[in-house]
Amino acid sequence: MTIVSMRVNGRAVAGEVEDRTLLVEFLREGLSLTGTHVGCDTSQCGACVVHVNGSAVKSCTMLALEAQGAEVTTIEGMAAPDGSLGVIQRAFQEHHGLQCGFCTPGMVMSAAALLRENPSPSEAEVRAYLEGNICRCTGYHNIVKAILAAAEELRAAPAAAE
């Protein structure tokens, strides 16, 4: 067992892990941050996307030890400072960008990474960026609509929290 420490959603955390412990397992089981989902264990579905040092990563294929000293943001860290839904989360709600909700955390995290890289994406760019995220319920139309609406809101109020 090895001690791993990092900042998760702005808070310093540490825990004992086996060398083979995946980041998603550490987040879910070690820290009880269950918003990050495990859908496939093969990095195909994107339900486990989190941000590590600002980059979107599939936490089912990253060892917890690889995040030693890193800044990790999970879906729980996407809320507004007052605890209400963040801009992207709210857009998913308002534009019906979810059905069962299983893929939603990964979609929101991927959307946040996209909008950080490209604040004004086209519909085609959103669809291309989401190719690593699978939703089994929707046709992606409302997910794309939600991301474009969030992009517009974030451009209008750049100080708004993601």
TrEMBL record:
The keyword Mitochondrion does not apply. Coiled coil: none annotated. One of its GO terms (molecular function) is metal ion binding. It comes from Oceanicella actignis. It holds the Pfam family Fer2_2. Keywords: 2Fe-2S, Iron, Iron-sulfur, Metal-binding, Oxidoreductase. This is Carbon-monoxide dehydrogenase small subunit. Residues 2-78 form the 2Fe-2S ferredoxin-type domain.
